[in-house]
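Tutorial handout. Part one gives the primary structure; part two gives the three-dimensional structure as tokens.
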Amino acid sequence: MSGVRLDPLNIIEAFNRRGVEYVVIGGFAAELHAAAVPPTRDIDFTPRTTGENLKRLSEAFYDLDARIRTAGVPEGLRFSHDATSLAKVGVWNLTCKYGELDISFKPSGTEGYEDLVRDAIRIEVRGAQTPVASLPDIIRSKEAAGRAKDFTALPALQERLSVQQGIPIDEQATAMAERAAEREIG
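Part two.
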């Protein structure tokens, strides 16, 4: 499945259909905020870590035919999973029929879902509310991660944050939903 063009909205839709509680983080979240960052090749999520939510996440993975992403196997490695097994790993790098996705239970610089959902901006994607990490939370996480690609993105993220300040949250959410819909068309 490697090489499949990213279709983030279908991945989000699969999560929403199963009732997974999550926050969209990372590069796709930055794109939705209109930061001048290169288009991402995957979509990142931080899910709530309750047993019931991880059960729903596992069901969504089966719906998506999610597989472990590895360089040597383009279609990814099949894996058996449930709530218990998903909870035992901090980060999952996966591929599915709609492209690549990553799960990070506690992204760098954060305390995980509860920390990120508090300031998340909720946008409507295909009729469902989708929480997207706030720009300050994205910046905080990228600064803490300390990877070269994160440091490269920081100026664009900080510039966008200065533009966003003073714009009401509902206007930001509407613009972000429009960008998500444009991604679907593009």
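Part three, for discussion. The chain has one domain: 8-185. The first strand starts at residue 22 and ends at 25.
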